[in-house]
Every structure is written in C-alpha cells, then in structure tokens.
Amino acid sequence: MTDFETIIYENKNGTGLITLNRPRALNAYNIQMRDDLYEILGAIRDDPGVAVVILKGAGEKAFCAGADLTEFLTAPPPVFARQARFERDVWGLFLSIDRPFIAALHGYVLGSGIEMALCCDIRLTSEDARFGLPETSLGIIPAAGGSQTLPRTIGRAAALDILMTGRWLDAAEAYRLKLVNHVIPRPRLIPEAEKLAEKIKSHPLPAVRYAKQAVTRGLDLTLKEGLELEIALGRRLANLSTD
Ligand code: COA
After folding, report:
1. Ligand 1 lining (C-beta closer than 6 Å)
2. 68-76: long-range contacts (C-beta < 8 A, 24 or more apart)?
3. Alpha-carbon span 221 to 184, nearest angstrom
4. Is residue 228 annotated as part of the catalytic site, yes or no?
5. Are the CB atoms for 108 and 62 separated by under 8 Å?
C-alpha cells in the first residue's frame, strides 16, 4: 500500500485501487490531490503489473464534492486554473492510459468528482449518489475536461441541461442518461467493482487494452478513419500474439 497525503494506492493482484482520501472535506480535489493523482497515474501507466484500476472515495458521505472551494477563493480563478493545467495535465494523463478504469461512486459526486468519473471507462454507482456540476453557479466552467467528456458520454442536450442549470441528478436519472453503467446497493458497491475488475482480468490483457484504444481513439475520428484504426490495432494485436 502506498500512502500519499490525499490518496491511498494499493495493487491487489493486478487491480490498482485508488482511494480519494480527504473524507473530512468530502474528498474535495485540491492542489495536493492533483499532484498525488498525477504521480500515481504516471506510475500506473508505466507499471505492467496493473491490469485494471478502480477509483473510489473514502468515507461515508462522498466520492468527491468537487474542487476544493477554500483554494478557489484564495486565488484569482482563471489564472489559477490555467496555471494548474499547465503545471500538470492530470486529465490528459488519465485519458491516455490504455488500462480499463472503473469508477465506484457514492454519496456526493460533484464538479471534478463527476469529471474524474468521466475519465473512467465504466461507472458503478450506489443508490444514494447525487450528481451535479455546480461550476456555472460559481461563475466558472468545468476545468477537468467535463465540458468535453460529458457531452461525449450523455449527448449534447443532456450535458448542456446539467451544465447550464447546475441541477442535481439522483442515481436513477444518472443511469437513465447513461452517465453510469450500473446502480448498486451501497454495501455491494466495492465488491461489485472488484468482481467487474476480476472479470476483465480474466481476459487477455492486450486484447482489453487494444479494445479500449480502438473505442476511445476512434471516438475522435471519422468512421472511415476509425475503421482503419481498428484494422491497424487488430493487426498489431495479432502480431503480438505470434511474437
Ligand atoms: N471544498 C472544500 N471543502 C468542502 C467542499 C469543497 N468542495 N465540499 C465540502 N467541504 C467540506 C465542508 O466545508 C465541511 O467542512 P467542515 O466540517 O470543516 O465545515 C465538510 O466538507 C463537510 O461538508 P458539509 O457542507 O458540512 O456537508 P453537508 O452534507 O452539509 O453538505 C454539500 C454537502 C456537498 C452539499 C456541501 O458541502 C457543498 O455544497 N459543497 C460544495 C460543493 C461544490 O460547490 N463543489 C465545487 C464544485 S466546482
């Protein structure tokens, strides 16, 4: 187990388990968490011993209640946000890793909490979760990729509704909008995430990694380019298995 100031990381038989660990502040995303995540995501990217990753929040009340508002209020927001992005592109790094990521969501999932979940590939949520993007009510826009990842996940109209009104969703609506894949009773959330990780790990890892690349890279391409990508990845995968 590796302890950072704001997260806990452990590798359980090839499943990397990242726990956001500021429960007294509802796991709000602060600069230290940005640095800790950047470090652990880089380590995961370079570690062939990690096949699947689960991201979850510590404590009873929240996966993550968004950006740490105490830091927001002490710096000029646009300057701060831009500087933070230039210093560490956490979200670019997150999205570039070809291992499957599973988000296990409970309680408050707000602002960068939703955005972190959107960087994951499969989202499980407990029945008690509440989702919201309060950024516009604070006079800002999402800065963790949410303005791009949310419409790509739930479509333009639903994304703009949530972004412009700042209204919250319960787990049932999040499921209906396809923001999450499964709604699970709270006590079963982590066991189900681990079961899903085991299921994925039972398949040949290169195939899983290439499938993720085909889908995520293909989404930014035309269909023609995407089909070419699929052929190229399929060939490369076949070569891997004959090497
Ligand atoms: N940044 C920093 N601290 C936060 C936080 C955040 N985004 N969200 C919650 N906290 C802290 C609270 O200040 C409080 O700290 P304290 O015990 O030292 O006073 C602690 O977490 C518990 O939160 P509290 O507000 O008492 O819990 P609640 O159940 O009454 O309300 C929320 C929960 C999520 C509704 C409320 O905390 C909230 O609105 N948070 C801000 C959400 C937000 O706007 N995020 C920014 C998105 S860009």
Report:
1. 25-26, 28, 65-70, 108, 110-111, 134-135, 138
2. 68/25, 68/28, 68/29, 68/30, 68/31, 68/33, 69/28, 70/30, 71/30, 71/31, 72/138
3. 34
4. no
5. yes
The residue whose C-alpha atom lies closest to atom 38 belonging to ligand 1 is: 65
- Tell me the pLDDT tens digit for each residue of 219-242: 999 999 999 999 999 999 999 877
Closest CA to 155 of 176, 135, 127: 176
Residues 24, 6: contact at Cβ < 8 Å? Answer: no
Greater confidence (33 vs 77) lies with 33
The one-letter amino acid code at 68 reads D
CA of 57 to the centre of ligand 1 (A): 14
User: What's the angle, vertex CA 179, arms to CA 204 and CA 67, rounded to 5?
Assistant: 100
The closest of 110, 67, 69, 107 to 90, measured between CA atoms, is 67
Q: Of the residues 69, 105, 115, which should be mutated to test ligand 1's pocket, given the most ligand atoms within 8 Å of the CB?
A: 69
Among 24, 26, 167, name the best residue to mutate to test ligand 1's pocket (greatest count of ligand atoms within 8 A of Cβ). Answer: 26
Q: What is the pTM of this model?
A: 0.94
| Nearest protein Cα to ligand 1, atom 42 | 65
State the distance from the centre of ligand 1 to the C-alpha of 30, rounded, in angstroms: 13
Instruction: Tell me whether residue 173 is one of the annotated catalytic residues.
Output: no
Structure tokens given for 241: 């298995």
| Token representation of residue 86 | 């230039």
| Cα–Cα distance measured from residue 27 to residue 23, given in angstroms and rounded to the nearest whole number | 5
Point out the catalytic residue in the list 5, 115, 173, 230: 115
